[in-house]
Amino acid sequence: MPVAEKKRHIKKERKLISVAAENASEILAYAKEKDPEAHIAAVERSNNAMILPEDSAWYREVKASWHPGITLRIRRENAGFTQAELAAMTGLTVSNISAYENGHRTMGLAVAKRLAKALKRPVSEFIEPESMTDRE
Predict the structure, then answer these.
(1) What sign has the CA pseudo-torsion 73, 78, 83, 88?
(2) N or C: which end of the chain has fewer CB within 10 A?
(3) Which residues lie across from 17 on neighbouring strands?
(4) What is the rounded distance in angstroms from the CA atom of residue 51 to the CA atom of residue 82?
(5) 21 pLDDT more than 90
(6) Better-predicted residue by pLDDT, 82 or 46
(7) How far does Cα 67 stand from its chain's mean position?
(8) Of 108, 111, 128, 130, whose CA–CA distance to 119 is shortest?
(9) What backbone phi and psi angles, to 5 degrees, belong to 73?
(10) What is the largest CA-CA distance in the chain?
(11) Would you list the domain boundaries of the chain?
């Protein structure tokens, strides 16, 4: 049975150029001159309008859900170790490594030092800042 192939009619590719910066209109005027068919979106923004990361809702949400175990998992995976391999290197159990990574168990300074040594990272990466000042 013959099959009819449908041809797609694609219009020219459209380009969207968006700039949010000081002097955005000057930048986009140049872009429009180079490509008159491009769609332009400009937002003039001064340095005074800059938002600091810690003032953003995204940052506050991430900060509220962060715990040292997240850093542990990232560092362990980046080093190419399984939980079992890291457990063997540190003398900890696999279930403890898992509990730290999932935030079900808090990490003391002694454990953080063992993990930091095995992963060749600074101890401060595995301790919450409040915990470090409490121990001094």
Answers:
(1) negative
(2) N
(3) 40
(4) 39
(5) no
(6) 82
(7) 14
(8) 111
(9) -60, -45
(10) 82
(11) 16-49, 57-135
Q: Which residue has the tokens 């990272």?
A: 121
Say what the alpha-carbon torsion angle 72, 56, 129, 66 is, to the nearest 10 degrees.
-30
**Which one of 1.10.260.40, 3.20.20.80, 1.20.1250.20, 1.25.40.80 gives the CATH number of domain 57-135?**
1.10.260.40
Six-digit token pair at 118? 């095995």
The tokens for 11 are 């219009």
Phi, psi (deg, nearest 5) at residue 20: -125, 100
More confident residue, 127 or 19: 127
Structure tokens at 52: 């600091």
Please tell me the pTM assigned to this model.
0.55
